[in-house]
């Protein structure tokens, strides 16, 4: 997503305007210190009235020395609730043991400096806010030092700072908490000196997560755990086919259940559904089971996987809209048949299924509203709620709740869950209503990674390297018909369909990529690493197949084929080679090593896996992963993201959402099966290429590499190339 | 509706609910103990795991009417148990959690495993933890933390 976005001039404009706004409001918007004045100061007549600061501050120094740092992102596992405060605290020289992190509500000041909306996506949290949080920390420190220097009648450069204390040239010292009251009266500096990397105390260190303990003793509250006075719980009966409408409703049995408060039809983004509001979730769910709804399913497409595959396969045999045309697209026709190959791939729909089911709580008070949302897309979700309620976005107080995973599922352009919640809350004016999507709603509710077909024709040169490549990709657009289309659709091609192929790091002289973006009545959505899931699989399995045909070692083959400018990927490949060579050369009988490498979201990753076959399934004994992500802000978090991200990537091998007559054939984790512990690698060792380049993201880049690496290993064991996912038979 | 007297984390609790209500929703909505999580409702993900008389149990499919006087232990109470405490500390020491939503269930399953097998093998771990889904796939660190806790006990 990001690669395409950043090409856009209008987003650069957004970025500039953000910076301008920030500068203009520098007195308290971008960087605000605000503090709880001690009671004595508040009571004393001489003390000036406490300055009112906007609530959207980033740093809050409390009298007890605690330093609250606001995180302008959702925390849903990726660890930014620890790593963004680390960046700020390091430049500020804050005492890390006193730092408390808080998730920001929806507000302009918390918008992603690059995207111009408040969101988590495109692996941008650290990449886009590294500089921002450094500057915030450095400016805060500068103001604290200025306050101390004034107090001691010395100059700022005679002072130094460490662990929330300013030290003067004599024996003076003052805690930040003592200085905060004076510091807030200092002008926010235009510029503040940033540390040299050698001065970092936190950045680059393996800093444990701040949220560990609360997540191990049950005290961490997620969106679904919200409990407000007088709160009701709602569930919605959705039509069995997307876009269906309620024809008639018999809710007599449902209403008989004690605790059921209301049953009513609601509009959905497409079609309509039935909302049930009850005192408790379990009552609402039971009531839904008792509803008798006759659905009008006429006039809407009933998606069917087997028919879609037929259509997609045919489409893949015809050129689509051109994404890349490099060299001669007819070159392939001049290559002898013996050195040509055709490969066809199929990838099913995939659900995200974050562990915490989708939910949103809204209370509507007529002229304002309050919302509690585990949201990756605060700006969009706040706007949607406001629109439904006839309010302005700023009239909706929007709390970002901790989320139990997301993987893209909580960044939905049409905000359909929030719209449902707002419609229900509107009817129950004054009452907070928590809308809960059950797991069944989630598995059957759409917004999937789209299904894709790929067809690749390759002409191989006499040297065994690909000389000509003609590649057609078929899959729904993620953004057609949305405000994102203008940024992401170019020449009729949704860039998220082709990313990972069109921008390949391999040097293929005659390279032609085209795409079809058919319209299907199934809502689709970005799924962690977006187009790179299927594109990396196709590219990395084909490169391995070509290496095998050429009888060249797969790492050597990749090195030979990588573009000279693919420096990060080459470094990652070299590192994975070095770190895995010992075990790759010493594999037990029945095991094979598989290799892959891929760059996405400006982060380069290489992977080696040790695989055998157990009970007709791949057993992944080990994965060695090397990553080049620029400066590693928190190597511990990066290690976790890569260990977990490769595990998440295995979903491609195990899961599928399929349709028959418009209906989803799976309903829960009994039919849709993400990887469990037995499916994931037993160990994952992660190695980071040392770098002082600007940091790049680590949320999505781990995902694409694992599945092709596993399949490349399987191919060595069975002699088969696996081009249809999930892996049903080996 | 019926009244049930429950023994939760060593304390007696009274609730008045429909007898079919799963223990999970009694804990979460009646007793306001939200550390036990809803993930699937069909005992396929393990997020709702609690101990019932020491046995790891998926609370999403057990009606409250079947509990009787059996002792229920949840994530909120497991730290009072020495093995429970050791597992929680190992989880923190190994920085296991990511989103954290499944971890209550993971910890409850791990404690039950360590009570049955003091030094579990990888196969034991895969068997006992095999039904606990983690979409962040923290599985590698879960293994490490279980082994670390086993070494502490």
Textual characterization of the structure:
The complex is a heterodimer of chains A (730) and B (153). By secondary structure, chain A is of the alpha+beta class. In chain A, 31% of the residues lie in helices and 22% in strands. In chain A, strand 9 (260-267) and strand 10 form a beta hairpin. The longest helix of chain A has 28 residues, at 125-152. The two termini of chain A are 33 Å apart. Residues 1-56 of chain A have low confidence and may be disordered. With 153 residues, chain B is α+β, with helices and mostly antiparallel strands. Helix content of chain B is 36%, strand content 16%. Chain B contains 5 helices and 5 strands, in the order E-E-H-E-E-E-H-H-H-H. Chain B has a 5-stranded mixed beta sheet, with helices on both faces. In chain B, helix 2 packs across helix 3 (103-116) and helix 2 (82-93) packs across helix 5 (139-152). The longest helix of chain B is centred in the last third of the chain and has 14 residues, at 103-116. Chain B is globular. The mean pLDDT of chain B is 98. Classes of the chains: A alpha+beta (730), B alpha+beta (153). At the A-B interface, helix 7, helix 9 and helix 19 of A face helix 1, helix 2, helix 3, helix 4 and helix 5 of B.
Low-confidence stretches of chain A: 1-56
State which percent range the strand residues of chain A make up: 15-25%
Mean pLDDT of chain A: 92
Kindly provide the radius of gyration of chain A, computed on alpha-carbon positions and rounded to a whole number of angstroms: 27 Å
Which range does the strand content of chain B fall in? 15-25%
Instruction: Give the averaged pLDDT of chain B, no decimals.
Output: 98
Strand order of the largest sheet of chain B: 2-1-5-3-4
Task: Identify low-pLDDT runs of chain B.
Answer: none
């Amino acid at each position: 997503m990001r690669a395409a976005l950043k090409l856009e001039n209008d987003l650069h404009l957004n970025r500039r305007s953000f910076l301008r706004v920030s500068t203009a409001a520098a007195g308290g918007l971008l960087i605000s210190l605000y503090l709880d004045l001690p009671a004595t100061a508040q009571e004393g007549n001489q003390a000036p009235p406490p300055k009112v600061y906007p609530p959207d501050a980033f740093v809050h120094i409390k009298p007890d020395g605690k330093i609250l740092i606001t995180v302008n992102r959702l925390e849903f596992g990726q660890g930014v609730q620890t790593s963004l405060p680390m960046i700020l605290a390091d430049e500020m020289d804050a005492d890390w043991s006193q730092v408390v992190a808080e998730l920001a509500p929806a507000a302009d000041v918390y918008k992603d400096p690059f995207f111009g909306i408040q969101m988590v996506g495109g692996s941008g949290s650290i990449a886009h806010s590294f500089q921002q949080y450094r500057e915030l920390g450095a400016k805060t420190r500068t103001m604290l030092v200025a306050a101390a220097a004034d107090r001691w009648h010395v100059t700022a450069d005679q002072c130094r700072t460490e662990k929330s204390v300013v030290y003067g040239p004599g024996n003076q010292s003052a805690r930040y908490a003592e200085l905060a009251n004076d510091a807030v009266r200092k002008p926010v500096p235009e510029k503040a000196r940033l540390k040299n990397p050698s001065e970092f105390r936190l950045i680059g260190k393996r800093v444990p997560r701040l949220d560990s303990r609360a997540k191990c003793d049950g005290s961490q509250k997620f969106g679904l755990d919200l409990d407000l006075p007088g709160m009701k719980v709602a569930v919605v009966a959705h039509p069995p086919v997307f876009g269906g409408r309620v024809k008639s409703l018999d809710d007599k049995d449902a209403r008989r259940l004690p605790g059921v408060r209301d049953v009513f039809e609601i509009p959905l983004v497409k079609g309509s559904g039935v909302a049930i509001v009850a005192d408790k979730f379990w009552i609402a769910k039971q009531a839904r089971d008792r509803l008798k709804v006759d659905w009008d399913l006429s006039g809407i497409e009933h998606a069917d996987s087997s028919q879609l595959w037929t259509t997609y396969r045919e489409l893949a045999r015809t050129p689509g809209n051109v994404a890349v045309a490099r060299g001669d697209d007819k070159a392939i026709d001049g290559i002898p048949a013996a050195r040509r190959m055709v490969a066809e791939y199929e990838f099913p729909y995939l659900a995200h299924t974050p562990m915490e089911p989708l939910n949103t709580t809204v209370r509507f008070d007529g002229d304002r509203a309050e919302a509690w949302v585990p949201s990756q897309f605060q700006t969009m979700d706040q706007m949607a709620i406001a629109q439904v309620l006839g309010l302005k976005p700023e009239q909706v107080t929007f709390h970002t709740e901790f989320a139990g995973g997301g993987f893209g599922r909580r960044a939905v352009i049409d905000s359909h869950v929030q719209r449902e919640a707002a419609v229900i809350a509107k009817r129950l004016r004054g009452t907070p209503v928590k809308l809960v999507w059950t797991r069944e709603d989630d598995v059957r509710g759409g917004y999937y990674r789209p299904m894709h077909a790929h067809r690749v024709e390759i002409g191989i040169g006499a040297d065994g390297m690909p000389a000509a490549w003609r590649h057609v990709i078929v899959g729904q657009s993620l953004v057609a018909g949305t405000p994102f289309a203008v940024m992401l659709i170019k020449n009729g091609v949704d860039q998220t369909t082709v990313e990972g192929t069109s921008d390949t790091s391999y040097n293929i002289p005659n390279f032609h990529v085209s795409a079809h973006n058919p319209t299907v009545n199934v809502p689709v959505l970005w799924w962690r690493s977006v187009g790179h899931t299927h594109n990396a699989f196709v590219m990395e399995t084909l490169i391995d197949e070509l290496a095998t045909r050429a009888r060249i070692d797969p790492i050597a083959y990749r090195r030979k084929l990588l573009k000279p400018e693919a420096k990060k990927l080459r470094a990652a490949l070299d590192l994975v080679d070095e770190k895995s060579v010992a075990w790759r050369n010493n594999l037990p009988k029945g095991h094979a090593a598989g290799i892959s490498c891929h760059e996405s979201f400006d982060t380069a990753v290489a992977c080696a896996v040790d695989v055998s076959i157990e009970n007709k399934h791949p057993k992944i004994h080990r994965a060695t992963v090397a990553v080049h992500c620029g400066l590693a802000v928190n190597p511990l978090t990066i290690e976790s993201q890569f260990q977990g991200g490769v595990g998440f990537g295995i979903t491609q091998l195990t899961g599928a959402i399929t349709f028959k007559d418009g209906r989803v054939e799976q309903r829960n984790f009994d039919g849709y099966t993400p990887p469990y512990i037995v499916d994931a690698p037993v160990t994952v060792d992660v190695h980071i290429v040392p770098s002082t380049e600007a940091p790049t993201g680590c949320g999505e880049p781990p995902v694409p590499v694992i599945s092709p690496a596993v399949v490349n290993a399987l191919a060595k064991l069975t002699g088969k190339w696996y081009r249809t996912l999930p892996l049903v038979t080996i | 509706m019926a009244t049930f007297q429950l023994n939760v984390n060593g304390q007696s609790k009274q609730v008045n609910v429909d007898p079919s209500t799963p223990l999970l929703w009694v804990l979460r909505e009646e007793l306001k103990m939200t550390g036990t999580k809803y993930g699937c409702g069909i005992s396929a993900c393990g997020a709702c795991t609690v101990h019932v008389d020491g046995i790891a149990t998926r609370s999403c499919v057990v009606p409250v009417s079947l509990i009787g006087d059996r002792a229920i232990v949840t994530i909120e109470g497991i730290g009072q148990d020495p093995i429970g405490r050791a597992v929680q500390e190992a989880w923190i020491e190994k920085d296991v959690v990511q989103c954290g939503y499944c971890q209550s269930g993971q910890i409850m399953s791990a404690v039950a495993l360590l009570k049955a097998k003091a030094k579990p093998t990888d196969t034991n771990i895969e068997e006992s933890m095999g039904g606990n889904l983690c979409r962040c796939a923290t599985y590698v660190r879960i293994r490490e933390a279980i082994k670390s806790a086993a070494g502490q006990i």
